Every structure is written in C-alpha cells, then in structure tokens.
Automatic annotation (TrEMBL):
It comes from the Archaea. One of its GO terms (molecular function) is DNA binding. This is HTH hxlR-type domain-containing protein. Keywords: DNA-binding, Transcription, Transcription regulation. SUPFAM superfamilies: Winged helix' DNA-binding domain (SSF46785). Residues 8-106 form the HTH hxlR-type domain.
Length: 120
C-alpha cells in the first residue's frame, strides 16, 4: 500500500476496506480465527486468486494476522489484528446510522451479530 502522508483520514480508512470482498472477509473473521478453506466456503463467489490477493493486502495493511501451524499437513489461520478489530467501531456507527437515520430504505437488523465481533 502506498504511503499515506498528508491524506485525508477518511480516504485512508476507506482505502483499507475498499473493494467488494474486504468487508466480507472482515465480517467472517469477526467471530474468531478462520482457516483459508472456511473463508472460501463462506464467500463462495470469490475466486481463489482474489481471496489470496485480498488476504495478502489486508495482512500487509495490518488489518489481519496470518498464522501458519507447522503440522502435517500444515494449515493457516487468519484472524483480526488489533487494528482490524478497531474498524468495527466504524461498522457499529454505520449500523446505527442504517437503523436510525436511513428513512428511505427502512432497514431492519437480523441481529446476526456479525457487525459486533467477539473481541469488543
């Protein structure tokens, strides 16, 4: 990711979660560590190439942690970093806005808890 000197903080934040898949990946990781194949199963429309690319970007940006377990066969788990957990403060406000201020679409919450990670 490019250096973010003298950039608007909103622009900086949006650059970390931009794209079609990063929000869905964060949502999946919000409930705890997840293996790669579990992520792929929970977001079936994403290609293997794009999922790998998004995970690498998010790891590089400090949003997630990749942990390799040296077992046979080896496996990898992804989890939210402190920075990744903290982004859910923004999601909580987006949720609040949607429920209280979006009069046009009249959204309802299914109370799925996916916007409230177990970390908070």
């Amino acid at each position: 990711m490019e250096k973010m000197e003298n950039r608007c903080p909103v622009e900086t934040t949006l650059s970390l979660i931009n794209g079609k898949w990063k929000l869905l990946i964060l949502k999946e990781l919000s409930q705890g560590p997840v293996r790669y194949n579990q992520l792929k199963e929970s977001i079936p429309a994403i290609s293997t190439k794009v999922l790998t690319q998004q995970l690498r970007e998010m790891e590089s940006d400090g949003m997630i942690i990749r942990e390799v377990f040296p077992e046979i066969p080896p496996h990898v788990e992804y989890s939210l970093s402190e920075m990744g957990v903290s982004i859910f403060k923004i999601f909580a406000e987006i949720r609040r806005w949607g429920l209280e201020d979006d009069k046009r679409n009249n959204p309802k919450c299914s109370d799925c808890q996916s916007c409230r990670p177990y970390h908070l």
